[in-house]
Amino acid sequence: MSLAQEHYRIRKLLEEENVLFCYSGPMNEALLPGLGQLVKQKIAVETDHPGTVQNVFSILVEQIQNVIRYAEDRDTQALGQGTLTVGRDGEGFFVTCGNRVEIGQANRLREKLASIRAMDREELKAMYRQILKGEVPEGSKGAGVGFVDIARRSSQPIEFDFIPIDSNYSYFALKAVIRPN
Amino acid sequence: MENIKIDATERTPAIDFNFADNRFSMRGESYPEDVPTFFGPPLSALESHLRGMQAGYVEFDFEMIYFNSTSAKVVMKLFDLLEKTAGQGVAVTVNWRFAEDDDNMQELGEEFGEELQAATFNMCALR
After folding, report:
1. Per-domain residue ranges for chain A?
2. What ipTM does this complex have?
3. Which residues of A touch B76 (CB under 8 A)?
4. What is the mean predicted confidence (pLDDT) over B25-33?
5. Superfamily of domain covering A3-178
6. Chain B: closest CA distance from residue A179 (Å)
7. Cβ contact (<8 Å) for A132 and B73?
8. Is the Cβ pair A133, B68 closer than 8 Å?
């Protein structure tokens, strides 16, 4: 396959998945404002609902900051490696993010996300408040205010998945869907 | 106490703490690279200013466009502090200013407003 063929194949694949934006590689705080503004601009062209633009942006910020803080996949500069996509989902949009996590951490994360996924709007609101007030002990089931925020801004329950990569690591992916309300 | 005035950046809010007039405000977007570094100094200055107050008037304006979940902890801390100050006998007014069409900020304002009983809370929709 030629260089252009190979590249076009990747691009086509993203288009087939309705991806509007994709980033894969090291993530740090300096990346965030530029990338966030760019995605905001792109989504604003696609929808005239400002709340939707804001929710896509917010979820992107929480996803990237999670990778920066927790990804167990650091290069020599200790940068978290992540893959982020933003795309079309019918009338709305999706934001997915994936990164490598250490297996023990994956198990804790799975439990936490399962409990957040099972909560209704009122329970998520109560959990958000409890965490902000510091009433939820660190490491307890629902803790992780970023994930609760993502769940609250999503129009449907968050999707998440883990697959084993090797004896030490799992690959973790999270998807949020945002529709105009 | 020396007044604190910090200009907004694309990821940090403008902070205007006028201790002489007891007028305080926070405006803009908030997803700082390091939340404790950014908010630590103004927050502790405000805490020590309000700690001993038992009378008078304090007004705090929030006019946020966006804040991330880590900054939300700071907003909650400020609400707790303002409510505590009102409990000490100070007339505290908190104004939550938001763009009229911003449902997210309106909802967040209503939620944070529930934290206040002794303090007066106003929702202000901006056209």
Report:
1. 3-178
2. 0.94
3. 129, 132-133
4. 97
5. Histidine kinase-like ATPase, C-terminal domain (3.30.565.10)
6. 14
7. yes
8. no
